[in-house]
Amino acid sequence: MSASAVDAPDALSGLVPSRVVRGLIVAVLSGLCFALLNTSAKELTQQLPPLFVAWGRWIAGLVLIAPVMLWRVGPDGLATRHLKLHGLRGLFHATGYALWYEAVFWLPLATVAAIGFTGPIFVTIGAVLFLRETVHRRRWIGVAIGFAGMLVVVRPGLAELNPGTWMMLAAVPLISGSNLVGKKVSTHDKPMVVVFWQSAIASVLFLPAGLLFWHVPTLPQVALFLSAGLFGTLGYFFLAWSFRLMDISALQPITFLGIVWAAAMDMIVWGKTADLWTFVGAAIIVAATSYIAHREARIGRPR
């Protein structure tokens, strides 16, 4: 990570002096936004073709973010010197999420989140191999314990390998590749710029699918698209922000909290009841995440 990205002040610097704690806060906010995005997307895939939903979600995100950026920084603020990196990330992202939107039709959100938790394995290994990050033993322990908690949660579900399960297993390495490139580009561009180019490139890449599966959405569906666009944009904004503050491998245990948000959405929106194993697994995940957060805060605290 470049020194400028680490040392640059941000909107939370005055309230939270610790860079590590700020990174953890925005990472948690990112997870909450993604849970709300997933809820909107799953509801839409029950009514419309999943790939049309994927295209509409990115169009909605672009409609929301472009006017804000033009108002705040003008056309010059949208410029980037790293368009190739943004394009590479867009290829990873569009391919991975094409599979993801198909999978979310088949699977409960908690199962989607749980399978997605294999991502830290790819991200942590990739961070070591390609970003040359140093991953300390405690991070590996946190990832391993959180992964064990995920297995406790989805123990019955993993035995039923429907098409959605296979699609998620294929999507996870691609999404992890997108996150690794996103980490790299976030050291050069501000979070709003990263999210803008991500939305623009994904909208173009999903355009053929959007035209092929075209439907005229109803007003409630338009509201769901806007909800997905809003929470998706905020989620990636907070994610890019956290990438500027912390190593990507240190952030991975935080993603395990997604199973808690996903299970809550399953119960609140679709009335599904979580069993005892869900809460046992969630407790393991939260314990692992809290331990890593505590250790990282101590490491990042000035002596």
Question: Which characteristics define this entry?
Answer:
303 residues; mainly alpha; disordered N terminus
Structure description:
- The structure is a single chain.
- With 303 residues, this protein is mainly α.
- It is 77% helix and 0% strand.
- It contains 14 helices and no strands.
Task: Please describe the topology of this protein.
Layout: H1 3-7, H2 19-45, H3 50-72, H4 83-106, H5 109-116, H6 119-129, H7 137-153, H8 163-186, H9 191-205, H10 207-212, H11 219-245, H12 248-255, H13 258-270, H14 276-300
The low-confidence parts are 1-6
Instruction: Report the order of strands and helices.
Output: HHHHHHHHHHHHHH
List how many beta strands DSSP finds.
0
The mean pLDDT is 80
Shape: globular
**Helical proportion, percent range:** over 70%
Percent strand: under 5%
C-alpha end-to-end distance? 21 Å
Oligomer: single chain
Gyration radius from CA atoms, angstroms: 19 Å
Report the sheet with the most strands, covering strand number, pairing sense and barrel closure.
none
Strand-pairing-aware structural class: mainly alpha
Number of domains: 1
Tally of contiguous helical segments: 14
What's the gist of this structure?
The protein is mostly helical and 303 residues long. Helix content is 77%, strand content 0%.
